């Protein structure tokens, strides 16, 4: 799949031990940093890296990338003291997998972004093509920050993430920033639940021909925002947008032909669209929100 067909024109952590305690750790040098080498020979299963065997999630992530096996997060709370950066550029052609058994990544004490999924090596004019990132299972990520708790892709759109799959990601921001930001994502299958007390719950900068379901809320702002870049040909299935001042905001002139199938809007204002074209609300439901007056929003089509 080529990723240059539609780009923007000029236009860590200390793991809180789970029940039973964490294994004893021995440090070893791996992948430009110090990561843990499990003390017990049987600490890691043969087909994955067990995050409990390492002193922090960054070290466990580095070990999984070197071994080219999934990073496994058994149930428990993994407390960060710095941002977790998952740069899977070494596996850009085949992807990187996280397996979560209902784990919680907690960055609330840092005041920083909790997790950034990246693929380095590109530029805005020649983005790095990266494939098949996958989060399997349910993963909770908590933060208290003025930025996004989870960022997928770099803000300058220098990495294009192709065909990612996220099974069940729940993001909570107790701060003034975003829940989750999607920067350059293509042909994705995403189940996202993005909640913030701040300005944007789920923020899409450049997302194309993807399938998205779940929910978003932003107590002080917009639940789902489509901003800036080329976002088109996406299908939002049964998405729940509420606990926000505005449920859906579209301000990108390059937001075209996105379809919302049976969305639920429950905000004082359902839709504010100032740009875009041929974005369809198909069989929408409204709670406290009133349906937008036909023709009052730029580029919005409604049926019925």
Summarize the structure.
This protein is mostly beta strands. The protein has one helix spanning 57-67, and strands at residues 14-15, 25-30, 33-38, 49-50, 71-73, 77-79, 84-87, 97-106, 115-118, 128-131, 134-143, 150-152, 159-162, 165-173, 178-186, 189-196, 200-208, 211-226, 231-232, 235-250, 255-256, 259-261, 264-266, 269-273, 279-282, 285-286, 300-303. Strand 4 (49-50), helix 1 (57-67) and strand 5 (71-73) form a beta-alpha-beta unit.
Provide a descriptive summary of the structure in words.
By secondary structure, the chain is mainly β. 4% of the residues lie in helices and 50% in strands. It starts with 13 loop residues before the first strand and ends with a strand. It has a 23-stranded mixed β-sheet that branches. The protein has a two-stranded antiparallel ribbon with strand order 2-3. A two-stranded parallel sheet has the order 19-21. The longest helix is centred in the N-terminal third of the chain and has 11 residues, at 57-67.
């Amino acid at each position: 799949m080529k990723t240059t067909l539609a780009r923007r024109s000029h236009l860590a952590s200390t793991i809180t031990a789970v029940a039973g305690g964490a294994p004893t750790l021995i440090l070893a040098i791996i992948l430009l940093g110090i990561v843990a080498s499990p003390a017990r020979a049987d600490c890691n299963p043969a087909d994955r890296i067990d995050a409990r065997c390492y002193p922090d999630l960054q070290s466990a992530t580095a070990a999984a990338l070197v071994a080219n096996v999934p990073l496994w997060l058994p149930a428990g709370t993994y407390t960060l003291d710095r941002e977790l950066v998952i740069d899977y550029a070494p596996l850009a052609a085949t992807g990187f997998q996280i397996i979560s058994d209902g784990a919680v990544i907690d960055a609330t004490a840092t005041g920083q972004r909790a997790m950034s999924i990246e693929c380095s090596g590109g530029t805005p004019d020649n983005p790095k093509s990266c494939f098949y990132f996958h989060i399997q299972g349910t993963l909770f990520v908590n933060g208290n920050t003025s930025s996004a708790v989870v960022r997928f892709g770099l803000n300058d759109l220098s990495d294009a993430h192709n065909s990612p799959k996220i099974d069940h990601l729940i993001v909570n921001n107790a701060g003034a920033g975003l829940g989750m930001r999607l920067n350059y994502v293509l042909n994705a299958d995403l189940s996202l639940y993005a909640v913030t007390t701040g300005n944007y719950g789920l923020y899409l900068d450049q997302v194309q021909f993807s399938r998205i379901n779940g929910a978003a809320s932003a107590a002080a702002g917009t639940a789902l925002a489509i901003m800036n870049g080329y976002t088109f040909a996406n299908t939002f299935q049964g998405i729940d947008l509420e606990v926000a001042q505005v449920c859906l905001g579209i301000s990108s002139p390059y937001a075209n032909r996105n379809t919302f199938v049976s969305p639920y809007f429950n905000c004082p204002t359902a839709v504010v669209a100032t740009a875009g074209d041929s974005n369809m609300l198909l069989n929408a439901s409204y709670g406290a929100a009133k349906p937008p007056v036909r023709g009052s929003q730029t580029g919005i089509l409604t049926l019925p």
